[in-house]
Design brief:
208 residues, mainly alpha, globular
């Protein structure tokens, strides 16, 4: 499927985790009596508000990251980079922030694999097995490419990957969610390292 056929529904189906933090914030999604969608960290709302979903990251105990594991998926990253026009350093930084290169990572809400795809999201991205590194990286990269066509600012792209395209547009930038702000900061901190990593082996694609 072409990128433009991915609908806004995808953005509500992607959940991420934050290795390196003890536990991500909980975000509750409510529908107000007039039908307005509301994202909040409040567990209780006035009568008439309908709870639609709860998003929460996973607890994580830091573990050592070996060079072999860190670079294990470079061939799949390069392939996805060339297929979807996303620089390999960005893909690798997202994988690091999402799963710390654990192909079997599963969040509390069911996000799976290296780039932490929810099952519904994986289906839209034509990923049949989210624990297969090549499929997962291709799907996550395709989604990054989709978001990069809609946002010129890399911070907004990352925020949309984490919290959804709709939230970025609703707040006119990075949403006021601690999880999302930490996530964007972490990926941007990792990005220069992985740009340098790939710069010696292939031409780096520019971030759009």
């Amino acid at each position: 499927m072409a990128h433009f056929r991915l609908t806004a529904l995808i953005t509500g189906l992607l959940a991420v985790s934050l290795p390196g933090y003890a536990e991500a914030d909980t975000i509750y999604k409510f529908r107000s009596p007039d039908g307005t969608m509301l994202f909040t960290d409040r567990q209780e709302m006035p009568s008439g508000y309908e709870l639609l979903s709860v998003r929460k990251g996973w607890s994580y105990t830091p573990r050592a990251l070996s060079a072999d594991l860190r670079d294990l998926y470079d061939p799949e990253i390069r392939l996805a980079s060339h297929s979807y026009g996303v620089e390999p350093g960005l893909i690798k930084a997202v994988i690091h922030a999402e799963s710390l290169f654990d192909r079997n990572a599963t969040s509390r809400v069911g996000a799976q694999g290296l780039m932490q795809l929810m099952p519904q999201t994986a289906s839209f991205l034509e990923v049949s097995n989210s624990f297969d590194p090549r499929q997962n990286i291709a799907g996550g990269t395709r989604f990054l490419s989709y978001l990069m066509e809609r946002f010129d600012n890399i911070e907004h792209v990352l925020a949309a990957y984490n919290a959804g395209e709709g939230n970025v547009r609703r707040y006119g930038g990075i949403p006021p969610f601690d999880e999302t702000r930490r996530y964007v900061k972490k990926v941007l901190e990792l990005l220069p390292r992985y740009r340098e990593h790939f710069s010696g082996t292939e031409q780096t694609l520019a971030v759009r």
